[in-house]
Design the sequence.
């Protein structure tokens, strides 16, 4: 174990963000030649790929979250700082926090992305996205509240609107969310209500391009679309959302416009870089792409600032293949690990090869026993793809207790078709049939 004075004089690496990229960088920097500070607004790492399962009641938030201090506790050279970065000064090598100033020798920025409404930010309160625990809990509240409100609704048209769920965006998140809501209505909640038949609920998936899962091969997109159709999901491709209000969604397909009565609209259509991307551009002269991601060099550093690295979803890496690397967890994990090892090599006077992402495949789940997998050398869908998806997600969960809990929960759900986290939380209660709103404020 290094002595205190050695740690004090060691090369100081500051990592901003405790997501996949930041966490993997921190875990790889447990070396006495450096001291590490991880700065995050949250004290936990969130396994974002399973947020949709929180939103649909399959797992609880704690099942897919792990305290950063617990994960990094074995690295005696690492400390976690609960704070928010406001600005940085690359000349003095300082970052400005809400709680003060922090100096660095190497800086790793891994602050990710947020929702992008393409100039329609007024839709945010009506159609929540899915990036945080709070987002997932809000979606869960709206989904289950809609069924409860429909149970007490006398007007058939209003009841139909309450049981219509619109998911905007046909990428992996939108497909997974739409499939999970359809399973919820057709299996989990079937028979739980007395005045409504939950199987009459309609899930509509809207995608602006000509097929769902655009990043996947066309045959896998077709398989996913067929699987969604078997679950009862109605898919509208080539459709653009032009208006969202609390009781309807307006879409345009070619020259035709359609108004869909719906009280629950969920957003999965786009992302934009965190505001720190713009801060980096202003302070370092780095370029941004159209989504606000920072364009990085082949070693993930910034031009003219070899001590500042941008990794994960915040980075635009266009040095491999025809397109920039996608904003997915495996890219973030490998990038964080690469930068950590690059810094250690530099301290030893060694050089590193440019970052190269090893693509081990991509996958998306549609429902129970339904998924699509692209491993590059082979593509397949169906039950085996679903089991591979389950294995991969269990494997990448950070803490052993989380793996055990989620694996047990999934096994229980698989055999019983039940979802145990169907809690309605928050301040806004379900509307009663007389129009009054009872007061409720349960919190998770």
Sequence:
């Amino acid at each position: 174990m290094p002595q205190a004075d050695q740690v004090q004089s060691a090369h100081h690496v500051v990592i901003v963000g405790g997501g996949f990229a930041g966490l993997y960088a921190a875990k790889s920097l447990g070396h006495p030649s450096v001291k590490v500070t991880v700065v995050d607004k949250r004290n936990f790492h969130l396994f974002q790929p399973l947020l949709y399962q929180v939103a649909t009641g399959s797992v609880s938030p704690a099942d897919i979250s792990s305290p950063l201090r617990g994960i990094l506790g074995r690295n005696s050279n690492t400390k976690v700082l609960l704070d928010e970065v406001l600005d940085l000064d690359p000349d003095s090598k300082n970052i400005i926090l809400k709680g003060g100033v922090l100096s660095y020798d190497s800086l790793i920025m891994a602050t990710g992305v947020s929702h992008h409404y393409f100039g329609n930010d007024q839709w945010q309160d009506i159609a929540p996205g899915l990036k945080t625990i709070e987002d997932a809990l809000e979606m869960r509240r709206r989904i289950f509240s809609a069924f409860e409100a429909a149970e007490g609704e006398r007007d058939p048209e209003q009841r139909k609107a309450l049981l219509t769920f619109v998911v905007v965006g046909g990428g992996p998140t939108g497909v997974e969310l739409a499939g999970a809501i359809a399973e919820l209505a057709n299996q989990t909640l079937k028979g739980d209500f007395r005045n409504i038949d939950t199987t009459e609920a309609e899930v509509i998936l809207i995608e602006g391009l000509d097929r769902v899962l655009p990043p996947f091969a066309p045959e896998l997109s077709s398989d996913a679309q067929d699987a969604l159709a078997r679950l009862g999901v109605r898919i509208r491709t080539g459709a653009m959302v032009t208006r969202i209000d609390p009781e309807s969604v307006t879409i345009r397909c070619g020259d035709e416009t359609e108004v869909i009565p719906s009280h629950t609209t969920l957003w999965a259509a786009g992302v934009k870089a965190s505001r720190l991307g713009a801060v980096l551009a202003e302070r370092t002269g780095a370029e941004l792409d159209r989504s606000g991601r920072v364009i990085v060099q082949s070693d993930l550093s910034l031009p003219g600032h070899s001590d500042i690295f941008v990794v994960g979803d915040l980075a635009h890496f266009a040095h491999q293949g025809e397109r920039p690397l996608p904003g997915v967890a495996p890219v973030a994990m490998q990038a964080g690990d690469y930068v950590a090892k690059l810094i250690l090599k530099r301290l030893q006077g060694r050089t590193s090869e440019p970052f190269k992402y090893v693509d081990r495949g991509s996958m998306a789940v549609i429902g129970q026993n339904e998924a699509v997998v692209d491993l590059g050398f082979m593509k397949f869908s169906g039950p085996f793809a679903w089991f591979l998806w389950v294995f991969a997600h269990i494997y990448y969960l950070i803490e052993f207790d989380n793996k055990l809990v989620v694996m047990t929960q999934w096994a229980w759900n698989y055999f019983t078709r039940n979802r145990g986290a169907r809690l309605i939380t928050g301040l806004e209660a379900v509307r009663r049939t007389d129009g009054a709103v009872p007061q409720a404020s349960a919190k998770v």
Q: What stands out?
A: The chain has a mean pLDDT of 90. The first helix runs from residue 4 to 9.
